[in-house]
């Protein structure tokens, strides 16, 4: 039964791919929803319009993401 619920949520969340704010709200519902919605939300983080100056905003997002990585991963990127 839980697999059916998960499959249904995946279908629903995939329909929300064009509405990142709605997907963000879904990850705040509970851990189960977060576990399902998070990969969809982060599938392509640079796809969404996140500001007036897209390239600058994307650069800031990249810096934020890399700042959260462990040191070993940062070394691999360098």
Could you explain how this protein is built, in words?
The chain has 78 residues and is an all-alpha fold. It has one domain. The chain has five helices and no strands. It has helices spanning 2-15, 20-27, 31-41, 54-67, 71-77. Helix 1 crosses helix 3 (31-41) and helix 2 (20-27) packs antiparallel against helix 3 (31-41). The longest helix has 14 residues, at 2-15. The chain is elongated and about 45 Å long. It holds the Pfam family F-box-like. Residues 7-46 form the F-box domain.
Compute the average pLDDT.
79
Overall form:
elongated
Could you tell me the radius of gyration in angstroms? 15 Å
Q: What is the number of helical segments per DSSP (H or I, 4+ residues)?
A: 5
Give me the strand/helix succession: HHHHH
Question: Hey, roughly how much beta strand do the residues contain?
Answer: under 5%
Organism: Rhizophagus irregularis
InterPro entries: F-box-like_dom_sf (IPR036047), F-box_dom (IPR001810)
Domain F-box: 7-46
Protein name: F-box domain-containing protein
Quickly describe the structure.
This protein is mainly alpha-helical. It has one domain (3-75). It has five helices and no strands.
For this entry, give a set of tags.
mainly alpha; elongated; F-box_dom
Give the helices and strands, then pairings.
Elements: H1 2-15, H2 20-27, H3 31-41, H4 54-67, H5 71-77
Helix pairs in contact: 1-3, 2-3
Protein name: F-box domain-containing protein
Domain F-box: 7-46
InterPro entries: F-box-like_dom_sf, F-box_dom
């Amino acid at each position: 039964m839980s697999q059916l619920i998960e499959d249904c949520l995946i279908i629903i969340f995939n329909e929300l791919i064009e509405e990142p704010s709605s997907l963000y709200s879904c990850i705040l519902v509970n851990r189960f929803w977060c576990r399902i919605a998070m990969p969809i939300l982060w599938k392509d983080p640079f796809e969404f319009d996140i500001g007036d100056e897209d390239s600058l905003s994307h650069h800031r997002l990249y810096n934020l993401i890399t700042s959260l990585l462990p040191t070993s991963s940062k070394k691999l990127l360098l």
